[in-house]
Structure formats: C-alpha cells, structure tokens
Amino acid sequence: xxxxxxxxxxxxxxxxxxxxxxxxxxxxxxxxxxxxxxxxxxxxxxxxxxxxxxxxxxxxxxxxxxxxxxxxxxx
Length: 75
Fold this sequence. Notes:
With 75 residues, the protein is mainly alpha-helical. It has 3 helices and 2 strands, in the order ββααα.
C-alpha cells in the first residue's frame, strides 16, 4: 500500500514540477531520493549537503514513513 504523502506537511506535489512527483516543499528534490540514497549508503548529512535540504525536512519525511508502519493492517 502506497503512503498518502498528501498528509506529510514537509512535501508537495505540483503538476508540471518534476512530473508531479512528491518533492520536498519548495524544492525540486523528489522524496524518493531520500530512500534511494539511504539505501545506497549515504548518511543524512551527505544527503543534506548534496541535495540542499535541511535535517528537519529529512527527519519529517522519515518520521512520516515510520509512523505509517505503525498503522493497523486492514483485512
């Protein structure tokens, strides 16, 4: 089940910007890039430097994703 990123205040999807992908609010950095780069071994500090996002932005996205895992499973 996909996350409902519209409920995460740190991100936005703007038609015509990055093909409407979910990006950090006020940037062109796709949210997916956080997870891809963490998977590839980058640290949060390296991601912050490379993509010019703040620790608060990264933490908000990671916290949102983690909280979604706590939701009860519907059957």
